[in-house]
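ok so for the tutorial part 2 we go from a plain amino acid sequence to predicted structure tokens. step 1 is just haveing the sequence, like this:
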Amino acid sequence: MRVACGLLSAALLCASAASQDYPSKPITMVVPFPPGGVADIVGRPLAAVMQHSLKQPVVVINRTGAGGAVGMAAVAKSAPDGYTILMALSSISIFPVSDRINGKEPAYEMSDFAPVALVTADPTVLVVRADGPYKTLKDFVAAAKARPGKINYSSSGVYGTLHVAMEIFANAAGVQLFHVPYQGGGPAVTALLAGQVEASAQGPAAVIGQIKGGKMRALGSWGSERLKLLPDVQTLKEQGYDAEFYIWSGVFAPAATPAPVLAKLREAVRDAVNSGEFRGAMDKLQTPIAYLDAPDFAKYWERDAARLKGALEKIGKVEEK
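step 2 — the prediction. this is what the tokens look like for a chain of 321 residues:
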């Protein structure tokens, strides 16, 4: 018994010492999507500023697959030592529910993560090509009703954030659309610009340049009120469709990460978000910061996850063609 207690005490002392020394080597921030999407364009400038506080490099790695689930599961299963963190979107709440709807064992659970901080939150925007046939949302819905299942749209992956947003809208509008999943928001934007699909749901930051450059047209947004950067674009609710959805980005660590390590990560994110460097980067992307520290973020995440769970259960199993 004394030996066991001694070993346990030694392990606790080592863990405590490791926490005090944290960080003593580079930190990996996993972005579970390809470059160009919301998580990537927020995560990279955030990581670049976080390393000033942490005094260690914060290296961004795009670990893609399954609409983001591969990278998220990888972080959930990583060592809870603060050296592997996650820049996730609201889709982190989707996959455990969608897996169960489809009779699968979830790759991870929400309880596998410790929320560190909410960074941004934006309503999704429904976009089409500016040279396409759809001038208004009414045009788009009319075409979808006339050709059930023929109007296609791109997303970041099956049951990913953008997929769920479009299905929520399709359900509210009483239309059937054809889903074409890609491996992230960036490729989904490229597909629309290339004419491979007719529409997409996207975070404003990913498409605002294309909209202002005259290459894309926004038909509506999923917010409760109009976007400040797109004041002429009506919300879906204004246009008669009860659909609301937000793409938020936040930092997470594995659930068992020691409290002192989480505290240092929280401080690093807070300092980064308040820095002129990060705020300047977000201003260039026209992405509003919506910072919440861990306790408030945990409450926000719980409420948002409950809303998404209800939406997914209403949508049910989505058959991919």
